[in-house]
Amino acid sequence: MNIAIIGGGSVGLLLAARLCLAGSQVQVITRTRQQADELTKHGLLLHSLQGEQKRIHIQAVSMEGDLPKADLYVLAVKQTSLTEVLPVLRKIDPSARVLAVQNGMGHDDHLKEVLALNQIYFGVHTEGARRHSYTEVEHTGKGTWQVGSIIGQEQKALPLDPVIEAFLSVGEIAGLAIKYVSDIYGVMWRKLMANAVINPLTTLFEIPNGALLESTETMVLMKRLFVEAKEVASLHGQKIDESSWQEIVQICRNTSRNYSSMLQDLLNCRPLEIEAINGYIVKQGRELQIATPHQEAVYKATLLKAGLMAQRG
């Protein structure tokens, strides 16, 4: 199958590297021509979890004009860049599928504006990755991948889409701990909660994920953010229990050396996905009349910090 990965950030580059090493036909579609040219000229340097360095030949083009033909488009751009991609997604072949791997929530409404429901799939992962340059990515933590249809539970009675089935197979060959789930929205809510706990705190304190577990004060803040998010999720029909909290703690352990994507964006003066993460929980809390003071505090503090960093250049 032909796989096009839209986005040359840490997640897109890591996935492209692992699939290429497994023999899959992969093309990376970058937001800038400079990154595409550098990837084509120099290849992609992967730092593996075992400390090995591998230089991988990779095909790359910039996001100009129509997208190249593919069976599956992995949408790996940030939520903040999603609007740039939507017009070209509208033109893809109806037989193609799109796997959206954004953090946060709310992007399903945007995708439904340009794609048919049977084309839209979501991917939720807990892999740790860090991009060092346009052509260099480090795998910093092993995680899992879960894939599901936007149609959700209704898909249970239908045979698995052949494009998605093929992607699951090549993902397994590439060493991904990947599986298909019928309730992808439930998985997305749990990932949202993890991001809403880990990302803003690591960004505010500028620390790696594992450092959150080294302080009683940060652990208390984490738990308060979790409890508020749990109350909002519960009114959306999600059953959140103590195991969900333990999963967040385990993510911090598994990606202890990793800098969260939000912190990486801050340090590189890129827009933050705070609106789609903590901002989403705050907004839902207001609509459901649930107080989320700690979520709102870190949301506003993170926005303020990002603004100050931008002013300093």
From TrEMBL:
Catalyzed reactions per annotation: (R)-pantoate + NADP(+) = 2-dehydropantoate + NADPH + H(+)
EC number: 1.1.1.169
Lineage: superkingdom: Bacteria
Function noted in UniProt: Catalyzes the NADPH-dependent reduction of ketopantoate into pantoic acid.
A biological process from GO: pantothenate biosynthetic process
Keywords, ordered alphabetically: NADP, Oxidoreductase, Pantothenate biosynthesis
Residues in Ketopantoate reductase N-terminal domain copies: 3-149
UniProt entry tagged with the keyword Transcription regulation: no
One Pfam family linked to the record: ApbA_C
Species this protein is from: Brevibacillus laterosporus LMG 15441
Domain called Ketopantoate reductase C-terminal: residue spans: 183-301
Enzyme class: oxidoreductase
SUPFAM superfamilies: 6-phosphogluconate dehydrogenase C-terminal domain-like, NAD(P)-binding Rossmann-fold domains
Pathway: Cofactor biosynthesis; (R)-pantothenate biosynthesis; (R)-pantoate from 3-methyl-2-oxobutanoate: step 2/2
MF annotations from Gene Ontology: 2-dehydropantoate 2-reductase activity; NADP binding
Protein name in UniProt: 2-dehydropantoate 2-reductase
The UniProt record lists the keyword Oxidoreductase: yes
GO cellular component, one term: cytoplasm
Similarity comment text for this entry: Belongs to the ketopantoate reductase family.
